């Protein structure tokens, strides 16, 4: 019985620490991506999703403004989708 309780405690601790790491990464990118995608009416949710992926892969770097300024973040600028186009909005 003690073994089950210990296993449950360890699993809970691991899940909780992973959750906080993911949440903090999302929150640092979330605000930047909200601004970046604010004028994208047709595909807003897709823009936010792609921006967050790019932001996390590029160490929280998102170009300023809603369009352009890609030279501020070369990693963000150079990421490509499966068709060879720009992955990041």
TrEMBL record:
Keywords: Gibberellin signaling pathway, Signal. PANTHER family: EXTENSIN, PROLINE-RICH PROTEIN, GIBBERELLIN-REGULATED FAMILY PROTEIN-RELATED. It comes from Camelina sativa. The gene is LOC104755278. The lineage of its organism: Eukaryota, Viridiplantae, Streptophyta, Embryophyta, Tracheophyta. InterPro entries: GASA (IPR003854). Coiled coil: none annotated. This is Gibberellin-regulated protein 8-like isoform X2. Belongs to the GASA family. Residues 1-25 form the signal peptide.
